[in-house]
Specification:
Length: 461
């Protein structure tokens, strides 16, 4: 019988397999029947099992399917199967198409990684669009074994040997408590068809090689190899939890303006460095390079997709890449202005009855209105900027001024300056005003300039 016309009997009684899944979900609080969940439906046995099981258990579901245009007619067949299955189950169905090969080429990644990036990007968008609680995917315990072995041969830390997490971000994996054989038995017991991806049987990528070649050899040595690997992974997971709890209290980034820092002297083991960087998307190769250069030349930098890291004398500094300003704000007249999500600027006119303390306050600039020509400009520092600091007769490179104040490279990159219509620096923001526009006894009107951080601002750390 063609799968498109398959008649599905929906059992009203929960069987042993479904009861086992329900107990697993409950034990880890993975799902809530009051919420909507998206099921990543490929048409394969694992995802079809997940869809049928969760529906029988009474969860509110919608299905999402990705067509990667990699397997020609077979991929079209999968899409049609998923559409028909959801129609028969009366489950809302959503699908999307990707030009995976073009994405891989343009981003310099493998086809496998491109498909993963595209898939999870789509999942995040659909969770928001459908107001769903999470996306359920059909990984089972043997997938976890493959992941452990892959991480081991690639070199990994203790967390890489703990297997696939039941819940991470918006992804939930309710089938991690069962193996592939039990999934197939369940589908046969409810007479549910599924499709098969022929590429799963070709040992061309590492995961397929592990599944088709390495694990069978391990099971020849010990038939319980996969079970024992999972037991070891659970023990390592328990150890990792204890270790992380301890490290969270002992190994912490210290806050600073716009970034965080950690003393290099306290990084006595490479694992401590990995722990500090684990949430900031640095690769294992980068972490190894950082470790090797930890006591090297100050000023060396690394960048992940989201953060920048700096060796600064005896400290390690980290900042979100979005923390470095790039906006140029034109200020035509006195008033209140917003520079970005963090900084806001206020310019007003004052009478020249100022105290010496007012004039020396670095967080508030007072300048002679007659000497400063609008429009003003608030912008990041440029390499050729020169500055005449308050109280000095000559000018100097702003970079030298900042170096003399022992500002880190991050401090310099985050520094803002306020310039006048002739691009003369009026104020190194929250540091020092320029001498050429200082308030004197002859000043009749004072410009008061205040640049403050929005109290509602939240760092992207």
């Amino acid at each position: 019988m063609p799968f498109s016309s398959l008649q599905i009997d929906q059992p009203s009684v929960v069987n042993d397999f479904e009861r086992h899944i329900e107990q697993y979900i409950s034990s880890l609080s993975l799902l809530n029947k009051e919420e909507l969940y998206l099921v990543a439906l490929s048409g394969g046995a694992d995802s079809v099992c997940l869809l049928r099981c969760l529906q029988t258990l009474g969860y509110r579901l919608e299905a999402v399917h990705c067509h990667f245009h990699l397997r020609a007619e077979e991929a079209d067949r999968d899409l049609l199967f998923c559409q028909d299955l959801c129609a028969q189950l009366q489950i809302p169905f959503h699908s999307t198409h990707f030009d995976t090969k073009t994405y891989a080429q343009s981003h310099g990644v493998s086809i496998e990684m491109a498909a993963r990036d595209l898939r999870y990007s789509y999942f995040r968008k659909m969770v928001q669009a459908r107001h769903a609680a999470a996306v359920c995917v059909g990984h089972h315990c043997e997938d976890s074994v493959e992941t452990i072995l892959l991480n081991l041969v690639r070199s990994t830390g203790i967390h890489g040997l703990t297997g696939i997490s039941p819940k991470k971000g918006i992804i939930v994996r309710p089938l991690l408590c069962v193996n592939r054989l039990k999934i197939i038995d369940y589908l046969q017991s409810i007479q549910q068809n599924y499709v098969t991806d022929s590429t799963n049987f070709v040992a061309d990528v590492q995961r397929n090689q592990m599944r088709l070649q390495v694990i069978p050899q391990l099971e020849k040595i010990n038939p319980a190899a996969q079970v024992n690997i999972l037991k070891a992974a659970q023990r390592l997971s328990d150890i990792a939890d204890i270790f992380d709890k301890y490290l969270s209290q002992q190994v912490c980034w210290q806050p600073s303006e716009g970034y965080r820092w950690f003393p290099i002297a306290e990084l006595t083991h490479e694992y401590l460095l990995w722990y500090l960087l684990k949430d900031f998307h640095f690769t294992s190769v980068q972490v190894e390079q950082i470790w090797q250069n930890l006591h090297g030349e100050s000023g060396k930098q690394w960048q992940s997709s989201t953060h920048a890291l700096l060796l600064d004398r005896k400290r390690l500094l980290i900042a979100a890449r979005s923390a470095f300003p790039s906006t140029v704000l034109s200020i035509p007249r006195i008033g209140n202005y917003r520079y970005d999500d963090k900084w806001q600027l206020a310019i007003s006119q004052e009478q020249p009855n100022l105290s010496a303390a007012d004039l020396k306050n670095p967080h508030c600039a007072f300048v002679d209105s007659d000497h400063v020509a609008f429009p003003l400009c608030l912008r990041p520092v440029r390499s050729a900027d020169r500055f005449q600091p308050f109280g000095m007769k000559g000018s100097q490179l702003l970079s030298d001024y900042m170096t003399n104040r022992k500002m880190s490279i991050f401090d310099k990159r985050m520094q803002l300056v306020l310039t006048d219509a002739h691009d003369h620096i009026v104020w190194v923001v929250n540091q020092r005003t320029a001498d050429w526009c200082r308030v004197t006894d002859e000043t009749t009107v004072v410009l008061k300039i205040v640049c403050t951080a929005d109290p509602c601002y939240s760092s992207s750390f």
